[in-house]
């Protein structure tokens, strides 16, 4: 396909890329073109001609990157080489998405499917713990008023009762953000890399963090040592995704992400059983919906009916 044909095919309605996203995508595209152009072995005259043609496209490729960065990051049929690269790709994608503004009288709506272990599991004993599943809806405004609907009922809360965490106040620099997540009590202080990855998943899946913060969150996750990539997984809601996993020997954290739009689908934590040595699921949250609404009686368009109905 000719370069100009590619421009016409993709169109011009792609959001403008950030400088960071543009730099990463341009580097990756140019590396791919150079790698193909510099393949080993002797070249026939016909192949040398194709190589020169490819090199002539380098300036055009740079222009394409500047406006079509999302297309470059996620080529159809391609797959990331590592968990780190996948997470950075997701950061580029989410960095192009618009942020949701929240007014003082509006509410953040979330709908989550939660599975958690109830009971105790003492070392050396079989224990009596069991997994409990519930779907929870929550409305919360910046002033702390809101509503929670789950298996325990439908309860409204007055101003100041609920804790509203404002992710828009988080830094967009990945180093500063990682430090904040490890030290700031209001967002849940973390002491291990597994806890850090869990917190990143919670902020990406259960809040309306601005696009700059979301991009930084993916970079924080990419810098966690020991993460692994598991493609083609299915989350508890039956949605296809790609998993990023960290297993530190005691705790296993898994994030499932939709690679088409960088949406956090679910996160789960498992611990090693003292009986069998196998990883046993302790907690899992599946993020079904998140959005901004005007009242505690409203749900985002396309959301499922109330869990109490």
Question: Explain this structure to me?
Answer:
This protein is of the alpha+beta class. The chain is 33% helix and 26% strand. The chain has 9 helices and 9 strands. Strands 4-3-2-1-9-8-7-6-5 form a 9-stranded antiparallel beta sheet, covered by helices on one side. α2 packs across α6 and α6 packs antiparallel against α9. The chain is globular. The N terminus is likely disordered.
Chain-wise SSE layout:
Blueprint lengths: L2 H8 L8 H19 L7 H12 L1 H10 L1 H5 L9 H13 L11 E12 L11 E11 L5 E5 L2 E5 L16 H10 L9 H14 L4 H12 L5 E7 L5 E8 L3 E8 L4 E10 L6 E15 L16
Antiparallel strand pairs: 1-2, 1-9, 2-3, 3-4, 5-6, 6-7, 7-8, 8-9
Please give a handful of descriptors for the protein shown.
9 strands; 309 residues; alpha+beta
Please summarize what this structure is.
Helix content is 33%, strand content 26%.
Query: What is the CA–CA distance across the termini?
Result: 53 Å
- Main sheet: which strands, in order across? 4-3-2-1-9-8-7-6-5
What is the tally of helical segments? 9
Largest sheet: 9 strands, antiparallel
- Share of helical residues: 25-40%
Q: Strand-and-helix sequence, N→C? A: HHHHHHEEEEHHHEEEEE
Task: Label the overall shape.
Answer: globular
- Described by its quaternary structure, the protein is single chain
Contiguous uncertain segments of 5+ residues: 1-16, 40-45, 47-58, 60-77
Number of beta strands: 9
Radius of gyration computed on alpha carbons? 23 Å
Helix-strand category: alpha+beta
* Share of residues in strands: 25-35%
Average the pLDDT over all residues and give the rounded result. 79
């Amino acid at each position: 396909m000719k370069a100009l044909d590619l421009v016409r095919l993709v169109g011009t309605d792609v959001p403008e890329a950030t400088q960071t996203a543009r730099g990463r995508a341009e580097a990756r595209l140019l590396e791919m073109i150079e790698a193909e152009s510099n393949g080993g072995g002797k070249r026939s005259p016909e192949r040398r001609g194709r190589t020169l043609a490819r090199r002539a496209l380098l300036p055009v490729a740079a222009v394409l990157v500047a406006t079509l960065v999302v297309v470059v990051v996620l080529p159809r049929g391609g797959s990331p080489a590592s968990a780190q690269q996948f997470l950075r790709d997701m950061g580029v994608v989410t960095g192009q998405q618009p942020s949701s503004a929240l007014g003082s009288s509006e509410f953040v709506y979330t709908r989550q499917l939660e599975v958690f272990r109830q009971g105790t599991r003492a070392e050396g004993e079989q224990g009596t713990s069991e997994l409990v599943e519930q779907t929870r809806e929550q409305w919360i405004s910046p002033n702390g008023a809101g509503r929670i609907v789950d298996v325990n009922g439908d309860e409204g809360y007055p101003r100041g009762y609920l804790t509203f965490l404002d992710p828009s106040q988080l830094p967009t620099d990945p180093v500063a953000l990682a430090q904040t997540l490890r030290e700031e009590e209001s967002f849940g202080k973390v002491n291990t890399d597994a806890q850090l990855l869990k917190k990143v998943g919670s902020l990406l899946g259960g809040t309306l963090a601005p696009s700059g913060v979301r991009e930084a969150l993916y970079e924080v996750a990419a810098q966690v040592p020991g993460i692994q990539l598991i493609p083609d997984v299915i989350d508890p809601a039956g949605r296809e995704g790609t998993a990023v996993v960290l297993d530190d020997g005691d705790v296993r954290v898994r994030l499932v992400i939709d690679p088409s739009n960088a949406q956090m689908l679910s996160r789960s934590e498992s611990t090693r059983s003292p009986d069998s040595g196998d990883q046993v699921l302790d907690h899992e949250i599946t993020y079904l919906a998140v959005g901004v609404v005007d009242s505690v009686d409203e749900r985002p368009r396309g959301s499922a009916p109330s869990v109490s109905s």
